[in-house]
Design a protein that fits this description.
alpha+beta; 4-stranded mixed beta sheet; 4-stranded antiparallel beta sheet; 11 helices; binds flavin-adenine dinucleotide
Amino acid sequence: METHTSPHASPQSSEDRQAIREAVRSLCKDFPDLYWRAVDKEEKYPDEFVTALTKSGYLAALIPEEYGGAGLGITEASIILEEINHSGGNSGACHAQMYTMGTVLRHGSEEQKRRYLPAIAQGELRLQAFAITEPNAGSETTRIETRAERKGDRYLVNGQKIFISRAKQSDLMLLLARTTPYEELKDKTRGLSVFLMDMRSVKGKLEIQPLDLMINHHTTTVFFDDVEIPADSLIGEEGMGFRYIIDGWNAERILIASEAIGDGHWFIEHASKYASERVVFGRPIGANQGIQFPIAQAYAHIEAADLMRYHAAAKFEAREKCGAEANMAKLLASEAAWEAANACLNTYGGYGFARDYDVERKFRETRLLTTAPVSNNLVLAFLGQNVLGMPRSY
Ligand SMILES: Cc1cc2nc3c(=O)[nH]c(=O)nc-3n(C[C@H](O)[C@H](O)[C@H](O)COP(=O)(O)OP(=O)(O)OC[C@H]3O[C@@H](n4cnc5c(N)ncnc54)[C@H](O)[C@@H]3O)c2cc1C
């Protein structure tokens, strides 16, 4: 595994990016459809894949070199996730480490970074759990109720999170919790705080219950019952957590768009090949416009979404405002991938439903991207309200 080319710092050229793409593609060849199919069927965590990606250095793409990471940019990170999904795999198994990195890097203390990042980069620690969603708040994050109360040199956490992926497979959890009661706040976006919680050493009752979902995502409900965490788990300033999480949203949207683009290419390639080979009524089904055109249409939409993803990533790297572009990339890419998924399933006819062809697995997996980590309705609301200035629904 370690024979694959290792990443190097901040590549700028398209040749460097192509080299990363090819190296990840090569690594993914060791984890073919058969591997992901078995993992999905047995609802296992793809440990071997995550370990290989960690050893190769690509999972630590966004960790700066001074902390033992590859020190790459968001464009390179997005190419890595795209290639995993394009190969037939599912980067949902490990993407949280990249989603959370901005919050830790921008707002974590030097001591926190030195304590955790080198170990994460080495694969000694896993940061794969990102806990925001709650049953009573849903998309309205400022309404979360899980409470973290300061008691001397500790915080006492009580509450419940839902849909928290990989909590059981992770050592660390980036947790958003309420530190000031909602009613006491003038500004409702304050009063929440982010913690980098080491789940191996917490005191109190931390209960993680698996959820039975349509995809193999290791998603859980997490109950906090007088869970004690050291006060130095707090990231940045108390009460500023919502702002810190929002800061990371653009990167997350760009990364999720890339995963969708990878899925989209997988569907288009499989559909085109199958349509060219499957003969019914004496000709390849792909000669029929009812089969060919939806595939071509979805392909055009994926390519267009891809341009928006690079545009958003370039603005992100230039530290320009990119909320509109990052949200549009996420919206367009997840919809294009879903369109490609449907075109592919139609092309495969009944075989699309057979597990051995992998289409139904990828179909289920890519559907998530329109809903999580943020639903496309909320993306449209952002565009309608924040970009176009229309009246607000929330
Ligand atoms: C497999 C999976 C993994 C997940 N992993 C994680 C994780 O690791 N960590 C984590 O914190 N969360 C995770 N989530 C949660 C995910 O981010 C939420 O499900 C998602 O943000 C939507 O929240 P909700 O399900 O509560 O929907 P709700 O907020 O209840 O919304 C339901 C529907 O109403 C729509 N809606 C609500 N308000 C408006 C409005 N104003 N205008 C228009 N439409 C509106 C929404 O768009 C949605 O379609 C995961 C979810 C899934 C399914």
